[in-house]
Amino acid sequence: MILSDIEEEVVFLKAIKEIVDSVVNLETLTLHGTDRDTTVCFRTRTHQRFFNVVLVDFLSRTDKKAPVRQSSYLGALRAISEHPSFSVGDSIAELRNATCAFVDWLEQKIDVDVWLPSIDTQATIQISRFDFLKMCGDISKHNVLRSVGVAKELQQTLEASGTPVELEGAMLALADFYERFHTDILSYHSSTIAEFLNNIRWGIYEYLQAELHRSIAWEDGDPPMYRFTYPEGVVHNFAKQCYWDLMNEVRDQPYVRRFQVTKWLKTRY
């Protein structure tokens, strides 16, 4: 099955929307405060860990066996933003801006003072937000025997920061790294990340409203029935199902209202 460009876009948008909806919802998190001063809290520590696990999937590349060209989800969003199939009156603008803002934020490098008691080491680590979120997500997913790759990443990060350690030392320090970057720093950034993801979700919704109105056709009945008219180029059954589901799902607004996080959660790390 070789999908057309428009079919790939539909499949990616469906998958991305599902990922965001799975963590940005009122079962997983709660909003506190008013806009320009909102904070996000997870229901439990388990919800925070789940958030990180899903986030690392969102930051990863698709399965090479998937019926789309292998890409990261953010890479797919950037490609869609540059060559949208459904944009009317620049309806892609909100999604484009949300994607670029998140990518820029993720790529920024931060300096973090870290105490690693397991190896009796104090270090200042320079690392991108993208990299530490991926590392923490992988640790959240796996136990120590499945985290050797993350330990090697930590070893390389420490060495680049002027603190060389053996691989065994890096494995010992994983729990200390996780405590600092997941329990502490991710907790600090979670409100901001949730805002980025929610903006992407709203961007998808706004982008597809014109297509929804074009494609939906109502039929007489009690209750009234409706169907969708597939756009030209959507011919494979899998892509058609994704399109049908996507149009159904953007009939309603996203689960979580638009919100702006307080500036005090955007000044560190």
What does this structure look like?
The protein has helices at 5-23, 45-58, 73-82, 93-107, 129-141, 148-160, 167-215, 237-249, and strands spanning 29-32, 39-42, 109-116, 121-128, 216-219, 225-228. With 269 residues, it is mainly alpha-helical. The chain has two domains: 5-108 and 191-265, no CATH class; 109-185, no CATH class. The strands form three sheets. The protein has a two-stranded antiparallel ribbon with strand order 1-2. A hairpin with a 6-residue loop joins strand 1 (29-32) and strand 2. The mean pLDDT is 94.
Essential attributes:
54% helix, two-stranded antiparallel ribbon, two-stranded antiparallel sheet, single chain, 8 helices, 269 residues, 2 domains, mainly alpha
Termini, distance in Å? 44 Å
What form results from the Cα inertia axes? elongated
- Helix count? 8
Number of strands: 6
Please give the structural blueprint.
Elements: H1 5-23, E1 29-32, E2 39-42, H2 45-58, H3 73-82, H4 93-107, E3 109-116, E4 121-128, H5 129-141, H6 148-160, H7 167-215, E5 216-219, E6 225-228, H8 237-249
Antiparallel strand pairs: 1-2, 3-4, 5-6
Helix pairs in contact: 1-2, 1-3, 1-7, 1-8, 2-5, 3-4, 4-7, 5-7, 6-7
Short note summarizing the structure:
This protein has helices at residues 5-23, 45-58, 73-82, 93-107, 129-141, 148-160, 167-215, 237-249; strands at 29-32, 39-42, 109-116, 121-128, 216-219, 225-228.
